[in-house]
Amino acid sequence: MLEVIRNRRSIRKYNNKKVEEEKVKEILKAAMQAPSSKNSSPWEFIIVDDKNLIENLSKTHHRAKHINGSQVCIVVLGNKERFIKAGKWIQDLGACTQNLLLEAVNQGLASCWVGVFPKNKRVEYVRSILNLPNKFVPYALIPLGYSDEKVEFIDKFDESKIHRNLYKGV
After folding, report:
1. 40, 70, 116, 150: least surrounded by Cβ within 10 Å?
2. Ordered per-residue pLDDT tens for the chain, 170 residues
């Protein structure tokens, strides 16, 4: 598992190889294993593989253009009917999305977390593109594909960010 964590990168260039359904299913299984407040599991997903919809989702904001090159885009949604404690769903969906990204690496796929929530303009744009009922809150877009970039390990460990017991300043 540590190798998967170390090899996860935000990849924005994908080739044209089709993403297998069974890999998408395994990715979603991993996403749903995330912890959630009071076991509420407030997430739902839309698998988008229609090229026109993918192109429209790539227009969500200026940092989403690369979605257009992906074969599949998973839309991570919060379901308001399962928001038990105010604000906890945001953490729940964060954990869920991280699981999704890690399993994508495990499946040999590339991905990139494209934020939607909390920007109202982005939320409403995605809601309109997908004709979502109000009970769903678009949280993130995760394009999936086979990488057209070289993935290299980048050591992000920084011992200066580790503190014991009490914070004593720098």
Report:
1. 150
2. 788 888 898 999 999 999 999 999 999 999 999 999 999 999 999 999 999 999 999 999 999 999 999 999 999 999 999 999 989 999 999 999 999 999 999 999 999 999 999 999 999 999 999 999 999 999 999 999 999 888 788 899 999 998 888 766 65
The reply to whether CATH 3.40.50.300 applies to domain 2-161 is no
C-alpha pair distances (Å), 162 with each of 5, 61, 168, 169, 170: 19, 35, 11, 11, 11
Please report, for the chain, the start and end positions of each structural domain, with discontinuous segments joined by +: 2-161
